[in-house]
């Protein structure tokens, strides 16, 4: 009888090893744990391998719900590094190798603050010296990470030269919204139910992955949260949506927001609202007819290439040519 094949070690497979993979991709990867006032975060960076040219700018990436920075999500900052950008990311609290109960968001503002603490430590810290201090700094958020990026812009409105939102979690389609009565009932248990993984799966599923082969790889992630959503997590995601509705007009930072109209996980109407109400003088929206939620990790190849092309053109137009 044939033995079941073991899952791959990395999203690209079991070979080559990580060092060879990054070298072949033309990037240099570093990993570190960073202590924040809110908990310990696992962080990574990807730099262009060439030591002869300076990076165009710094970009800080925030992943989505149930994900982390060590599986297929890292293909996004790797691509930016191949374009000449220095890129950084952290596993969110309750995700990947960072502190916290897996899949649990106790407080959405704290989750944003923890990642922002790391980003600012790079942006404002002495590690990379005056060379990086002169570079422009951008935020990138995918899905829930897009919602957290929105919160970061509220918490630190003057610190960024631009932001990119990929299918941001800012508004939820009605069929995917958690039952208010269910959340109210669990709330009557004085906090005991907040960590229970009992929310219906339809609240976080839908048209997420268009390319089913890539979807299989994403689901192989050994650190991916696979249980039903925790009560407190869904409650905090609704808090995020409420904050967005009340404060979306406060965004002043230049931004690009991208969303597929076929996405039934997050509502593209939220991205439209951000574009319509934000006070940014430089703002761009791209709506892709029929595209699903995962625009860069698991969209059809020709579709993801189109999205990447739009992102590349937008950020290159707002950064200086490396010296």
UniProtKB/TrEMBL annotation:
This is Serine aminopeptidase S33 domain-containing protein. InterPro entries: AB_hydrolase_fold (IPR029058), Hydrolase_4 (IPR022742), MAG_DAG_Lipase (IPR051044). PANTHER family: PHOSPHOLIPASE-RELATED. Residues 54-296 form the Serine aminopeptidase S33 domain. Signal peptide: none annotated.
């Amino acid at each position: 009888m044939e033995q079941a094949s073991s899952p791959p070690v990395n999203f690209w497979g079991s070979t080559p090893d990580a060092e060879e993979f990054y070298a072949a991709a033309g990037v240099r990867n570093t990993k570190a744990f960073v202590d924040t006032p809110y908990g310990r975060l696992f962080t990574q960076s990807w730099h262009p391998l060439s030591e002869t040219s300076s990076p165009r700018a710094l970009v800080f990436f925030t992943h989505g719900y149930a994900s982390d920075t060590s599986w297929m999500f890292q293909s996004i900052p790797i691509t930016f590094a191949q374009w000449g950008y220095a890129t950084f990311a952290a596993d969110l609290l309750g995700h990947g190798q960072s502190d916290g109960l897996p899949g649990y968001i106790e407080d959405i503002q704290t989750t944003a603050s923890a990642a922002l603490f790391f980003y600012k430590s790079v942006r404002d810290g002495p590690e990379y010296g005056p060379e990086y201090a002169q570079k422009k700094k951008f935020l990138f958020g995918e899905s829930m990470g897009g919602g957290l990026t929105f919160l970061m812009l509220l918490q630190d409105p003057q610190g960024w030269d631009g932001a990119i939102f990929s299918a941001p979690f800012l508004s939820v389609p009605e069929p995917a919204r958690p039952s208010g009565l269910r959340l109210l009932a669990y709330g009557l248990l004085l906090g005991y139910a907040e960590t229970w993984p009992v929310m219906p799966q339809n609240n976080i599923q839908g048209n997420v992955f268009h390319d089913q082969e890539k979807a299989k790889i994403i689901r192989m992630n050994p650190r991916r949260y696979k249980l039903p959503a925790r009560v407190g997590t869904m409650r905090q995601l609704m808090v995020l949506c409420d904050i967005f509705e009340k404060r979306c007009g406060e965004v002043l930072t230049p931004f690009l927001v991208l969303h597929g109209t076929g996405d039934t996980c997050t509502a593209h109407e939220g991205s439209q609202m951000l574009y319509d109400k934000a006070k940014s003088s430089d703002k761009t929206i791209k709506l892709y007819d029929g595209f699903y939620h995962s625009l860069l990790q698991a969209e059809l190849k020709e579709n993801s290439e189109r999205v990447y092309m739009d992102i590349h053109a937008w950020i290159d137009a707002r950064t200086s040519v490396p010296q």
